[in-house]
Design brief:
The protein is an alpha+beta fold. The strands form eight sheets. An eight-stranded mixed sheet has the order 30-31-33-32-34-35-36-37, with helices on both faces. A seven-stranded antiparallel sheet has the order 7-8-9-10-11-12-13, with no helix packed on it. A four-stranded antiparallel sheet has the order 3-4-5-6. Helix 6 links the parallel strand 32 (about 470) and strand 33 (about 495-500). The longest helix has 18 residues, at about 55-70.
Length: about 700
C-alpha cells in the first residue's frame, strides 16, 4: 500500500483527541472507551439546535476538517472538474412525466441552477402547469433544507408538505391551499415527514417522532386546529418497532404499519368512521412479515408466513382480514423473492427477483393468467411505480442498466403494450457502446458465489493495472441495483473499473442471502466483500494496490470491518456516515435506532452470546496496530441514524493505535445529517469530493 500513502506528503500534524477513559462492564466483560466524551450529553437537543454543541467537541470536529482540507486541498481543481462533468450529465431544467389522478396529473420539475424540486399539476390530459410548491423558494436562507414532498387531498383542494431544515429528520408539516398557493396556519412539528388525508380533505393522520427520534404515535389532525389539540389515535409502546401511516388507493382505509426488520403488524381505520379504534389484522409474531394492498372486496397480503421464506401472496376478505382467513393465491416458490405488490381493479402486480435479476409480473384477477415484463441484459434495474388510480389498466415502470440511461414506460396490463414516455437525457452526451457492463461471480470463503456488477470503458485494459472503486452495503435486506449512474461515468472515463459487490446481508439472491449476512452470520458480509476484491484481482480487472473500497452507513460498518480484516488488500477506503461503533451503540437503548436494530445485529444488553458476536467485528473495538490504507470518513453533525461521534471516535482510535499508517481523514458536515447536503448539486459536490479522494489515492490525478 506504499503507493497510495505516497500521495499524501508533508501533512501537518493531525488532531490528537484527548483520552478520557470510561469503563463499561457487561456479562462480566470490562471494556474501556477513551473517546466516549465525544458523545454530547445533550445530543437530542443538539440535533434540533446544533449551536448548543459542547465547544470542546465542536473545536475537535473543526480541527479535523482543517486537517482533512490540508490533506485533500490539492484535489480542489479535480473536484471542480468532476462536479462540472457530473452536472453536465444532468438536464438542469428536467421535468417528470406527470401521473394522472382524477381531474389532474401531478409531477415534479427542476429549474436551471435550482437545487430543490418544484411540484406542479396540470389538467389530466395536458395543459398549463400550476405550480404547487417551489422548493427553491422555501429553501432560501437555510444552510440545509430537505423537502418530504407534497401529498394532495382526495378532493385535490389542499396539500400537506413537509421540510427538515436541520438534517435531523424531524420534519415540520404545513397545509397548503392548492388553489391559492397559500399556507394555512396549521404547523405540525416533529413528524416523520408526511401525512395521509381522510377522503373529505378536512383532516389527516401523521406519525410523531419522540425525543429519541422514534415514530411512536399516530395522531389525527383536523385542519384549522392547533397541534396540541390533535387526537392520539395509536401509540406503540415497544421502542424496538418503527411505525408508519398510509392509505389505500380506494381511500377506504388508513393503514397503521408497525414493524422492525423481521416482524410486522397492521392496524386498520375505516375512513367511513375516522374516530373508530384501529382494528388489528394479524398480531405480530417474531419473524413473520406481512404488508397489505386493497383490492375492492379483498386484501392482497404479501407475507413470509408458513415458512414462505421468499414470500407468497395471500388473499383475505376486507370484512375479515385476520390470519385465520388468509388463502394462498401466489404460492411460495423458493428462489423467487417477491419484493412488493400492488392491486388494481382488474390486475394484481408484483415485483420479484430471480437469479439476482428483477422482473415485473402481472396477474389477471379474473382468469388468473400471469405474464412477466423482463429484459435481456446481464445486469439491470427495474422500478415499479404502479399508478395513482385503482380503476386502470395502465401502470408505470422504469428500466436502466449500468450502461443504459433510465427509461420510463407506461404499460397496458390488458394489451401488454409498452409506451416509452421518457429516456433520461445526458446533455453532455453518452454512448452506451463506449462502456461495458458485466456481472461476474466471486467465490467466497464457504463456496457461495457473490455477484459483482461491473462498469468500465470499452478501451480499459484489463491486465490488473486499472484502478477500481469497489462499493458494498450488505444489510437490512437492501439490494443495490445495477442501475445507471451518470456519476460513475466520471470514474469509468478515467480508466476505473466501477464495481458493486452484492454481498450477503442484502436480498440480491433471495431471502436466505439476507439471513446469511445478519446476526451470528454477519461476518459473511465482510468475507464476501474481501472475496469480491480477490476475484477482481485474480481475473485481471485490477490489483490490490489499485482498489479503493467504498460504503456508507451500514456499508460504512463493512468498510471498518474490512479495514481491520484485510487492510493490505485495499489502497484506500471511503466510509460515509459509517456505523462503526456498533457495540457501544447497540448497548445504548436511548439512541434512536438501537432497539429496532437488535433483530439485525443482536441485543448485547440481554445476551452474552450476541455481545460476543458484535464484539468480534465492531470496527471501533477491533482497531489494531496494522498497516491501514488511507481512510476517508464522512459524517453529519445532526445525523440521527449514525451519530457524528461514531466516525469521530473511530478516526481518533485509528490515529492513536496505528499512527504510522493511514492517513485518516474525517470530514464532518456541520450543517447536515445522514444523507449529506440536501440540494441536488450540493450532493454532486459531495460525490465529487469522494471520487477525488479515490482518484488521488489511485495516483490518477
Amino acid at each position: 500500500m506504499a503507493k497510495s500513502k505516497a500521495v499524501f506528503q508533508n501533512l501537518p500534524s493531525p488532531p490528537k483527541a484527548p483520552k478520557k477513559p470510561v469503563s463499561d462492564t457487561r456479562h462480566g466483560i470490562t471494556r474501556s472507551d477513551d473517546y466516549a466524551w465525544m458523545r454530547a450529553d445533550n445530543w437530542q437537543a443538539m440535533f434540533k439546535d446544533p449551536s448548543i454543541l459542547d465547544p470542546a467537541i465542536r473545536a475537535h470536529l473543526e480541527a479535523e476538517n482543517v486537517y482533512m482540507q490540508a490533506a485533500l486541498g490539492d484535489t480542489a481543481e479535480l473536484q471542480s472538474r468532476l462536479f462540472a462533468e457530473m452536472k453536465g450529465r444532468i438536464k438542469e431544467d428536467d421535468s417528470s412525466v406527470p401521473v394522472k389522478d382524477g381531474p389532474f396529473a401531478y409531477g415534479t420539475l427542476y429549474v436551471t441552477g435550482g437545487e430543490q424540486a418544484h411540484y406542479f399539476r396540470t389538467p389530466r390530459d395536458g395543459g398549463d402547469r400550476q405550480l404547487l410548491l417551489d422548493g427553491d423558494k422555501e429553501a432560501v436562507g437555510k444552510d440545509y433544507f430537505r423537502l418530504s414532498g407534497i401529498d394532495h387531498s382526495t378532493d385535490h383542494s389542499h396539500g400537506i408538505w413537509g421540510y427538515d431544515d436541520k438534517g435531523s429528520e424531524y420534519f415540520t408539516l404545513r397545509v397548503r391551499d392548492l388553489k391559492t398557493g397559500e399556507d394555512l396556519a396549521d404547523v405540525i412539528d416533529n413528524t416523520a415527514g408526511g401525512g395521509v388525508w381522510a377522503p373529505d380533505g378536512k383532516s389527516f393522520f401523521y406519525t410523531l417522532q419522540d425525543e429519541n427520534h422514534r415514530p411512536s404515535k399516530v395522531f389525527h389532525h383536523i385542519v384549522g386546529q392547533k397541534q396540541s389539540e390533535d387526537r392520539l389515535v395509536f401509540e406503540e409502546k415497544d421502542p424496538g418497532f418503527f411505525m408508519g401511516v398510509g392509505g389505500s388507493l380506494l381511500d377506504d382505509f388508513i393503514y397503521i404499519d408497525i414493524h422492525d426488520h423481521e416482524t410486522s403488524e397492521y392496524h386498520l381505520i375505516p375512513t367511513s368512521d375516522l374516530t373508530a379504534n384501529p382494528v388489528l389484522v394479524a398480531e405480530r409474531q417474531e419473524g413473520i412479515e406481512y404488508s397489505m394492498t386493497e383490492g375492492g372486496d379483498v386484501f392482497y397480503i404479501l407475507t413470509n408466513a408458513d415458512d414462505a421464506k421468499d414470500f407468497k401472496i395471500v388473499v383475505a376478505p376486507v370484512s375479515a382480514p385476520g390470519k385465520e382467513n388468509w388463502t394462498d393465491l401466489v404460492a411460495h416458490e423458493p428462489g423467487r423473492l417477491i419484493l412488493s405488490h400492488m392491486a388494481f381493479a382488474r390486475h394484481l402486480v408484483w415485483l420479484e427477483r430471480r437469479e439476482g435479476l428483477p422482473r415485473i409480473v402481472v396477474r389477471d384477477r379474473t382468469s388468473g393468467e400471469e405474464h412477466a415484463i423482463a429484459f435481456d441484459e446481464e445486469a439491470y434495474s427495474l422500478g415499479l411505480a404502479g399508478a395513482a388510480e385503482y380503476d386502470t389498466d395502465v401502470i408505470r415502470f422504469s428500466y436502466s442498466s449500468m450502461t443504459t440511461p433510465s427509461q420510463l414506460f407506461d404499460y397496458n396490463m390488458a394489451t401488454r403494450e409498452r409506451t416509452l414516455l421518457k429516456t433520461q437525457e445526458v446533455p453532455s452526451g453518452h454512448d452506451a457502446d463506449d462502456y461495458v457492463t458485466r456481472r461476474v461471480m466471486a467465490p467466497s470463503h464457504d463456496g457461495e458465489l457473490v455477484p459483482v456488477s461491473l462498469l468500465y470503458a470499452k478501451d480499459t485494459v484489463l491486465d490488473g493495472s486499472a484502478p477500481c472503486l469497489l462499493y458494498g452495503y450488505g444489510a437490512y435486506g437492501m439490494t443495490i441495483p445495477a442501475s445507471f449512474s451518470t456519476n460513475a461515468l466520471s470514474l469509468a472515463d478515467r480508466g476505473f473499473v466501477y464495481a458493486i459487490a452484492h454481498v450477503r446481508g442484502g436480498k440480491d439472491k433471495g431471502f436466505a442471502w439476507y439471513e446469511d449476512g445478519k446476526m451470528e452470520a454477519k461476518q459473511n458480509t465482510f468475507k464476501d466483500f474481501i472475496a469480491a476484491a480477490d476475484h477482481l484481482v485474480s481475473e485481471g480487472f485490477t490489483a490490490y494496490e489499485n482498489i479503493i473500497a467504498e460504503g456508507g452507513s451500514a456499508g460504512g460498518m463493512l468498510m471498518g470491518a474490512i479495514a481491520n480484516m484485510a487492510p493490505e488488500k485495499f489502497a484506500g477506503i471511503i466510509a460515509a456516515v459509517p456505523f462503526v461503533d456498533v457495540l457501544n451503540t447497540m448497548l445504548d437503548d436511548t439512541l434512536p435506532l438501537t432497539p429496532p436494530e437488535w433483530p439485525e445485529w443482536g441485543n448485547p444488553l440481554e445476551s452474552e452470546e450476541e455481545y460476543q458476536w458484535i464484539a468480534a467485528y465492531s470496527p471501533y473495538d477491533n482497531v489494531a496496530k496494522k498497516d491501514y490504507p488511507p481512510i476517508l470518513a464522512i459524517s453529519g453533525l445532526t445525523d440521527p441514524r449514525v451519530t457524528y461521534w461514531e466516525p469521530t471516535k473511530w478516526v481518533a482510535r485509528l490515529r492513536d493505535t496505528a499512527p504510522e499508517a493511514g492517513p485518516y481523514l474525517l470530514k464532518t458536515n456541520m450543517a447536515a445529517g445522514h444523507g449529506g447536503k440536501s440540494g441536488r448539486f450540493q450532493r454532486l459536490e459531495e460525490i465529487a469530493f469522494e471520487y477525488a479522494f479515490a482518484i488521488k489515492v489511485a495516483g490518477k490525478m
